[in-house]
Design goal:
By secondary structure, the chain is mostly helical. Helix content is about 65%, strand content about 0%. The chain is built from four helices and no strands. The radius of gyration is 16 Å and the shape is elongated.
């Protein structure tokens, strides 16, 4: 995802005088959120694959929800 989008977006970000370091931090955080949220929660499906059979997919998708709610 980053390999495809960053070569297009990064020159625009630098041209708009945004700090590239903070932009990188935000991109990594957004990619992490995409890895744990439905419908494409790739990491969640991996956890379901190694979890015991009595753990449902719904339980696994509900587990990272505390990372999404504001404190």
């Amino acid at each position: 995802m980053m390999l495809i989008t960053l070569p297009v977006v990064f020159p625009v970000i630098v041209g708009l005088k945004y700090d590239p370091i903070w932009f990188g931090v935000l991109v990594v955080k957004f990619v992490e959120l995409g890895q744990i949220t439905p419908p494409f929660g790739v990491n969640v499906y991996v956890i379901k694959g190694v979890a015991p059979p009595d753990v449902s997919l719904e339980d696994v998708f509900r587990a990272p929800s505390h990372f999404l709610s504001p404190s």
